[in-house]
Amino acid sequence: MMIPPALSIDPATRQVSLDGRDPAFYSNPNAVYAALHAHCPTFYWEQQKQWYFTGYDYVNGLLRDRRFGRQILHIATREELGMAEPLPHLKNFDLAEQHSLLEIEPPEHTRLRTLVNRAFVSRHVEKMKPELAELANGLIDKFEKKGEVELLSAFADIIPVTMIARMIGIPEEMGPQLLKWSHAYVRMYMFGRTRRDEDAADQAAREFADYVKSVIKERRANPRDDLLTHMITTEHKGQYLTEDELVSTTIVLLNAGHEATVHQIGNSVRVILESGYDPAKLFSDEGTTERTVEETLRICAPVHIFQRWALEPAEIDGVSFQRGDKVAMILAAANLDPTKFSDPLAFKPDRNEAPNLSFGAGIHFCIGAPLARLELNVVLPILFQRLPGLKIARTPEVKDVYHFHGLDKLELTW
Questions:
Q1: Which domain holds residue 110?
Q2: Ordered mean pLDDT values, 10 residues apiece, the chain (414 residues)
Q3: Which residue in 250, 329, 371, 394 has the fewest CB atoms around it within 10 Å?
């Protein structure tokens, strides 16, 4: 296995040097992951100053291991951990994240997730199939006769944000503004973020929170049959969500409810068109469609990394962690583990191997997975059926947003 130029590995010390902002890496991370599997699946990433795991069993195990958690300050002080104080210029962002489902642990996590979960179970989202198909067909109607399209702006960007806004009870016309806030917000999770990124994210968090508060106020006065009303009016063990919890939960659902799915629609279409497979066969029935979608999720996942804090001393694959240490799992690399997947870099829609880890595992398994899967299983077949002869017009460029993975543009012709 050749080591890509962007990567330098010392297997003896398990030290790896890799610039996360190098286009050679983020344009084709799978090549780097394959080299890591071959030479050093558990490694210390010098630039990030922490340990990373790529092996499927380790990633799967760590995601479920209750010795590791998404927060640490519920059991230790900043002083004890030698952690810097919060940055004043991020106070709005930190407030919005304080009660995020992604960032908290039980019992708060259990209470919030229980209140929200009902809306996202498979049997509930399944009812959205007809309106999802109607939305996809309506968008294709607008560009079908042109013979060309930039798929992200005309299709992929619109579907997930429209559906999650409808579910929560946010007016659809807010879609473009939600996208702007979300793009600014998620740049906080990028490698090599700048002060400018931080200022933009904090401003987006403030505006986003103010807007959500105005909708909450309106919904308290005029309840509706939507998720926001459900979150406002439902109690769990005698407790209602506080205003701050409502704001955090709404923001995380809107962000997570479309950002990753936008990337995945683009990634999936690209992989399918580059694979040489006949789309008509890949989407011939529900079974082949489902297998195709799962294989695209495996080979080109939209979110690559999840991190955890060690809540107590632990040893994983010979690496010792103390309370307060951070550890990272590369989900997209675990999906390419050659001990689990034959010929892991190849797109094989008829695979019957391990499930992909693209939605995580354990108590933080993606709450929106049923919705994301439904969106992909409904809109991809419609796109390929409506536009036979679909081809990539120009080599797609990958967005510089690692550790997310998505395209800047996907220009297609037919």
A1: 87-300+359-413
A2: 84 95 94 97 97 98 97 89 90 92 90 86 89 98 98 96 93 92 89 92 96 96 93 85 92 85 97 97 97 98 96 97 96 98 97 96 94 97 97 95 94 98
A3: 394
Cα–Cα dist 211/216, whole Å:
9
On whether residue 61 sits in a domain, the answer given is no
Domain count, the chain: 1
Burial class (CB in 10 A: 0-12, 13-18, 19+), 24: middle
64 falls within a domain: no
315: which 2 tokens? 């040893």
Residue 127 falls within a domain, yes or no?
yes
- Which residue is listed with tokens 């919890």? 245
Question: Which phi and psi (to 5°) does residue 397 adopt?
Answer: -100, 135
The set of long-range contacts for 224-229, using a CB threshold of 8 Å and a minimum separation of 24, is 224/169, 226/166, 226/167, 226/168, 226/169, 227/116, 227/119, 227/167, 227/168, 227/169, 227/253, 228/168, 228/169, 228/170, 229/169
Q: What is the pLDDT of residue 39?
A: 96
Domain membership of residue 388 (yes or no) is yes
Q: What is the C-alpha to C-alpha distance for residues 358 and 305, in angstroms, rounded to an integer?
A: 10
Six-digit token pair at 214? 């105005």
Cα gap 10→324, rounded to integer Å: 26
N-term to C-term CA, the chain = 37
Characterise 385 by phi-psi region: left (phi > 0), alpha (psi -120 to 50), beta (else). Answer: alpha
Question: Rounded to the nearest 5°, which phi and psi values hold at 64?
Answer: -105, -10
pTM over 0.90: yes
CA–CA distances in Å: residue 280 to residues 130, 144, 388: 21, 18, 9
What CATH number is given to the structural domain containing 175?
1.10.630.10
Give tens-digit pLDDT for 305-321.
Answer: 999 999 999 999 999 99
Q: What is the pLDDT of residue 6?
A: 82
Q: How far is CA 160 from CA 13, 314, 380, 391, in A?
A: 43, 39, 13, 23
